[in-house]
TrEMBL record:
GO cellular component, one term: plasma membrane
Record's miscellaneous remark: Carbon 2 of the heme B porphyrin ring is defined according to the Fischer nomenclature.
Name assigned to this protein: Protoheme IX farnesyltransferase
Catalytic activity: heme b + (2E,6E)-farnesyl diphosphate + H2O = Fe(II)-heme o + diphosphate
GO biological process: one example: heme O biosynthetic process
Keywords: Cell membrane, Heme biosynthesis, Membrane, Transferase, Transmembrane, Transmembrane helix
EC number: 2.5.1.141
Domain of life: Bacteria
Pfam families: UbiA
Encoding gene (name): ctaB2
Family: Belongs to the UbiA prenyltransferase family. Protoheme IX farnesyltransferase subfamily.
Coiled coil, from the record: none
Organism this protein belongs to: Acidithrix ferrooxidans
Amino acid sequence: MNSIPVALKTGSGFKTVRAYVVLMKPRIIELLLTTTLPAMVVAQRGLPSISRVLITLLGGTLSAGGANAANMWFDRDIDALMKRTKQRPLVTGEISPTAGLSFAILVELISFIILWKYDNLLTASLSLAAAAFYFFVYTMWLKRSSSQNIVIGGAAGAVPVLVGWAAVQNDITLSGVMMFLIIFLWTPPHFWALAFRYKEDYSNAGVPMLPSVASFEQTSRSILIYTVILVIATLVMGPIAHLGVIYDVTAIALGAGFIYYALKLRSSHSPKVAMRVFSYSITYLTVLFLAMGIDTLVFHH
């Protein structure tokens, strides 16, 4: 890690603040929050109080941000080797490794206290467990050792729906578990599609992401299999959570689109199509969860 500057660069306060925001990977957090709020609406069978929503989203943001910062702290050696990540603050030296890790721990601690004090202990514990799983199981162990890294590690990204559910109900029911399963199944095709674009990066850094260690044929087949199982899970979700026609029609239409793109990728073997699958997967998850919330408000409010 000699190539990584450890001294903090001097710069404006704004630049430093921006560097810490980058450490938290706000784009990823955005996606987590778009699933947490609908989970709260379905759990409440209506709109939860604004204060409950704001506290849960704040706690969830800090928890995910802390986990992401810890991930960047640990991965700063391989981040320096990849085009996609070599401008990250811990690689460029905008933030020192010690400051980065301290920030991650502090943010995680604040998140736990907020969720425990204003929601409940189950919510705070689930959020902390997700962050710990992401760091210790995915980042430290699986990411560098297994091509199934994102399959198992992706569970951490599915926990925010359980956090939202627990914030409202203070327990976890089958409907909450189904939401978790949907995101768990969605993560591999979503991430593998993106990894096609950066497979040389992963190879150079020695990270066995599936597209960098398996053939296009194998990876595209895996994407298709996960997509089909995902779509089945979304259709099962309707009756389990007592959702209505808005959700069902949306799930069928979105699922057909996802399968179409996955089949197109299988036949085209094109990295350009892989990026279309990736883009579509983000829209897919956002609209699917939005439909859950809208359906609940229309038919059960």
